[in-house]
Design a protein that fits this description.
With 257 residues, the chain is mainly α. Helices cover 71% and strands 0% of the residues. The protein contains 14 helices and no strands. The longest helix has 21 residues.
């Protein structure tokens, strides 16, 4: 679910350790299904761990790189899965731990982006690779002060929209990037375009609510919420949880991707 996923990711860190990625390296020589069941399910089960010591990260990096740039069998699949896990790790760490591991996290996110870039060169219509590139770049801007990241994210996602002009998911991702760039007029036009494209899909409505929450536009929220809840009453409890978040928390941008 929308907010509960963020809540689990950003609150009450556990002391669980991220499993070694050695299995992923072996799996790079096998079918993607083997990788999925031997690595991804365990990662999802423990949410990858929210606190990772530097020794574990040092062990993780070469194995991560081998998985991203190893055997071509299932490589694109591995890249999007690992990129998503890196994004969750970035938002899941508290500020002190993130700063301690800054160099390693910076390098890991750069590896993920290199892999996604290679995937998009060969498969320019791969929406998930576009979206995860945008998300990682937003997080790099937020956490590492990467000044070029947002313009790069915009470029990648505009290319994705050019290839997939009627794909709601990629429109929402581009809207999230434009919001991060404080280009609000264009951002909200993209949210509206996504809603018009698939008015019965709740994701776009929820995304627009989150965007208005980030901007703390109470008048617009008061106007939109009754419409969204009338269409999708099941989202009420999720949206109530937004009040527990700092509107400036970069983790909220995960909604858009």
């Amino acid at each position: 679910s929308f907010v509960s996923t963020l809540t689990q990711t950003t609150s009450s860190p556990t002391t669980a350790r991220v499993p070694w990625l050695s299995v992923a390296v072996v799996a790079s020589l096998l079918l993607p299904v083997a990788f999925y069941h031997s690595v991804i399910f365990p990662w999802q089960a423990n949410r990858t761990g929210h606190i990772i010591d530097s020794q574990t990260m040092a062990e993780r990096r070469p194995l991560y790189e081998a998985s991203v740039f190893g055997s071509p069998v299932g490589r694109d699949f591995r890249r999007v899965i690992l990129a998503g896990e890196t994004a969750k790790l970035l938002v899941g760490l508290d500020e002190e731990r993130r700063e301690k591991l800054r160099e390693t996290l910076d390098a890991e996110s750069a590896l993920a982006l290199r892999g996604l870039s290679d995937t998009l060169e060969r498969s320019p219509s791969y929406v998930r690779a576009h979206n995860l590139s945008g998300l990682l770049l937003i997080l790099r801007h937020a956490y590492f002060g990467d000044e070029a990241a947002l313009s790069r994210a915009q470029e990648i996602l505009e290319q994705g929209v050019g290839v997939n002009p009627r794909n709601q998911t990629i429109l929402l991702a581009l809207a999230g990037v434009r919001l991060a760039q404080e280009a609000d007029t264009e951002a909200f036009a993209l949210f509206d375009r996504a809603i018009e494209l698939e008015p019965d899909a709740q994701e776009a409505w929820v995304n627009k609510v989150v965007a208005l929450f980030i901007r703390q536009d109470q008048a617009a929220l008061d106007a939109l919420m009754p419409q969204a809840l009338e269409r999708f009453p099941g989202i009420a409890d999720e949206l109530k949880k937004l009040s527990g978040f700092d509107p400036q928390n970069p983790a909220l941008y995960m909604y858009f991707f």
